[in-house]
Design a protein that fits this description.
Strand order of the largest sheet: 4-5-8-3-9
Radius of gyration: 26 Å
Order of helices and strands: EEHEHEHHEHEEEHHEHHHHEEHHH
Number of helices: 14
Shape: elongated
Structural class: alpha/beta
Length: 359
């Protein structure tokens, strides 16, 4: 499957993304409400826009309301509208999102945050497409395609009494789950290049190719679990380019990724890579808490056995010295390079050779 840009920054070629977008296209062609689910940062609202663009409502308005973005006392008005004087401060009439989206698509973002006392009113509008603005006795007909978006498991929320089960079933005419980034490793280099090309003009360097990555960098990115998903990757690319300029310097990006890995709890750290002599090092240069775990056969980080050089080749000695200094620097590659008296670029080249020897 070739590279494909699905529009609105939905970029990818991975089987996971292709399967989801195929389902989203089928959902878009149906008149049923669509429930878009997924972890934070996966691009759920982009998927909602994709559904709008492939639906029969694509020529109509596209309206998004964040159900968590309004004070409790204003969400009713934001959704259904109000008449002038309906409440204190209502100096003008307001049509509400349902009327504003008439003939198009209404995206109910963060639907799991909708107050439970407003959920029956939303349910009535979904079942009978009429809204009654606050302060009015007149109902207004509406015809908007509904796409609800959430990072919560609404069925579990319903079982816990925080979300109406009947509303869940009404919203879930069809469901589409956006995959987390860790299930889309093939998309990592494409997303990096996409974000880098988007950021480059603001740094005074336009044109394509601002974020091309080496095979080594792609492998390193694939070791991260990406708890923040695509949003996290976007922020790391921007931070790396803010530090190193454009085009993207992948050493800056990898430093940011390894810093993110190090900040995670030990249980979420990727498994160590096995080095040339059977020892191990983590993607951020840190040794595991117990370096004699089943995937590690070498000496512990504080074991002086690494200094036993008799019978070792120059490459083995170099590998042992580099691993030792990485451990001593707690994975900080800038510090390790300074201690070794070499540039970071040279250190990265040495690490590439180490990884090539163990692949």
């Amino acid at each position: 499957m070739g590279d494909r840009d699905y529009g609105a920054e939905l970029v990818g070629r991975s089987p996971a993304l292709a399967a989801v977008l195929g389902r989203a296209e089928r959902a878009a062609r149906s008149p049923l409400p669509v429930l878009v689910t997924g972890e934070s940062g996966t691009g759920k609202e982009l998927l909602a826009r994709f559904i709008h663009q492939h639906s029969q409502h694509r020529q109509g308005p596209y309206v998004v309301i964040n159900c968590a973005g309004f004070p409790r006392e204003l969400i009713d008005s934001a959704l259904f509208g109000h008449e002038r004087g309906a409440f204190t401060g209502a100096r003008d009439a307001h049509v509400g999102c349902f009327v504003a989206a008439n003939g198009g698509t209404l995206v109910l973002d963060e639907i799991g945050e909708l107050p439970i006392d407003l959920q029956p009113k939303l349910l009535r509008v979904l079942e009978e497409p009429f809204v009654t603005p606050l302060g009015s006795r007149r109902s207004v007909a509406v015809n908007a395609r509904i796409v609800a978006v959430t990072n919560r498991n609404l069925l579990h929320e319903a079982q816990a009494g925080r979300f109406r089960l009947d509303l869940y079933h009404r919203l879930c005419g069809m469901s589409v789950a956006m995959p987390p980034l860790r299930q889309r490793p093939d998309d990592l280099p494409l997303l990096v290049e996409h974000f880098a090309n988007a950021f480059a003009p603001s740094l005074g360097r336009g044109g394509p190719g601002a974020g091309a990555l080496s095979e080594h960098a792609c492998l390193a990115l694939g070791q991260h679990t990406w708890p923040g998903n695509v949003r996290e990757l976007r922020h790391l690319v921007w931070r790396a380019m803010a530090l190193g300029g454009a085009p993207l310097d992948e050493t800056h990006l990898l430093d940011e990724v390894w810093a993110a890995v190090a900040a995670q709890t030990p249980s979420r750290l990727p498994q160590a890579r096995v080095a040339e002599d059977g020892g191990s090092y983590e993607p951020n240069g840190e040794a595991p808490n117990d370096s004699r775990t089943p995937h590690t056969k070498g000496p512990a980080p504080d074991d002086p056995a690494w200094l036993c050089l008799q019978g070792k080749s120059w490459e083995e000695v170099e590998a042992a010295v580099i691993r030792h200094h990485l451990r001593a620097a707690n994975g900080n590659r800038r510090q390790a390079a300074a201690t070794l008296g070499i540039s970071r670029t040279t250190l990265y080249e040495r690490l590439r050779k180490l990884e090539g020897a163990t692949s």
